[in-house]
Amino acid sequence: MGHHTCCNKQKVKRGLWSPEEDEKLIKYITTYGHGCWSSVPKLAGLQRCGKSCRLRWINYLRPDLKRGSFSHQEAALIIELHSILGNRWAQIAKHLPGRTDNEVKNFWNSSIKKKLLSHGTLSDFSMIFPNSLTTTNPNPSFENFYPLNSTPINLMPISTNSPLILQVDHQMNNNQLNGDLNLNPVVPSLINPLSFDSISNDPTWFNFNYPHPQHDLDNYNQNVLKQDNSDSMLTSNISFNYTNGENFMDSRNAAIKTHQDLLMQVPLLPKLSEKIKGNGGIVESIPPAASQQIESMVVNSLPCTFPNGYIHPHYGMNGVHEMEQIECMHMSSFPSSSSSSPSSSKSSPSSCNTQFVMNPNLHTSWDS
DNA sequence: AAGGAACCCAACCGCCACCGA
DNA sequence: GTCGGTGGCGGTTGGGTTCCT
């Protein structure tokens, strides 16, 4: 019942793994690969069933796992994806590099679901995650999201009406065709310079987000528009090397022009509603408005979170070290979630006008 | 300080889909 | 078409840890 044949043939150990067992498994898999999991325990000298070995490797021992608490971006993404995908944790986890379905599931059940249950639904995000913090709050948490209409101080100048982010990934890869929701945009971080007119005078904003005027279109076209067919999460390698000592206004004006130029050239991501396919075709019909919001949220929450727009060429979203250092976040356009019920796997998002941004002075770790 | 409650999360369970014989 | 083996997934559990009184 539920056990695979390999588990029944011999007495297998259950429960927590010892460091010695971990070591054996790591050593074996790094040397030989896992091959057929059912044969792994025997060959690796473990008294475990293959299934247990597989789970241990996937959820804990894999070298590419990102340990530690979830970032705000990840949390927002989980919420959003859950509103689309429901409890399809594996699908959700695919869009969170270094995270496992088990981890996402646990996080949802322990942190997010709890909040949902205590506040109702996500339809009013501000009620679930009220403005509990100021810019100096030392204990950033999930509650650090601000609804835009609450006009907190030092908000990120995000507006869905401004072309904050240009989306250039319009690949339709096999995953998408097989039912995956591909939310892996290749995204340059293009903050609309015009929006800086309305924000605080904090110069760190400029230093963090401003595209450098020397970042010209040639460079852009070479690095950003180049489509990479590899399976890396992020294929863009674009860097705005702003130098602090440069003249602000000159840079600003140049950046505005660059920004406007880029807007004219960069193709847009296909609508999310067009990309979600199931076994028999498109199974999730996302309303255009919700789709737009989801796209915006996803785009804003992924690679553009690197303050200077730099996307690590190797790690992409797995750039753990970079992620840990990000202190500004671009969160906006949270559509509501109607998926307060964990059993709902076919929930459909409804529209919500509340938008959220992160206080840039906060840390990124989920919990302090 | 102690004991119970609440929480977290690694691991297991049960089911399903796929594949090859 | 059927069956066995396997991988994969979501739901659930239970033990360890942290929090609260």
Write the layout of secondary structure elements.
Elements: H1 5-9, H2 19-32, H3 40-44, H4 50-61, H5 72-85, H6 89-94, H7 101-119, H8 125-128, E1 145-147, H9 174-177, H10 203-209, H11 217-223, H12 248-265, H13 288-301, H14 320-325, E2 356-358
This protein binds a DNA duplex (21 and 21 nucleotides) through α4 and α7.
Subcellular location: Nucleus
Biased composition (Polar residues): 352-368
Keywords: DNA-binding, Nucleus, Repeat, Transcription, Transcription regulation
What does this protein look like?
By secondary structure, the protein is mostly helical. Among the domains are: 9-63, Orthogonal Bundle (Arc Repressor Mutant, subunit A), CATH 1.10.10.60; 68-129, Arc Repressor Mutant, subunit A, CATH 1.10.10. 37% of the residues lie in helices and 2% in strands. The protein has helices at residues 5-9, 19-32, 40-44, 50-61, 72-85, 89-94, 101-119, 125-128, 174-177, 203-209, 217-223, 248-265, 288-301, 320-325; strands spanning 145-147, 356-358. A two-stranded antiparallel sheet has the order 1-2. It is globular, with a radius of gyration of 22 Å. Mean pLDDT is 49; it is low at 121-368. The protein binds a DNA duplex (21 and 21 nucleotides) through residues 1-6, 14-17, 36-38, 50-52, 54-56, 58-60, 87-90, 101-103, 105-107, 109-111, 114, 342, 345. Keywords: DNA-binding, Nucleus, Repeat, Transcription, Transcription regulation. Residues 352-368 have a biased composition (Polar residues). One of its GO terms (molecular function) is transcription cis-regulatory region binding. Residues 332-351 have a biased composition (Low complexity).
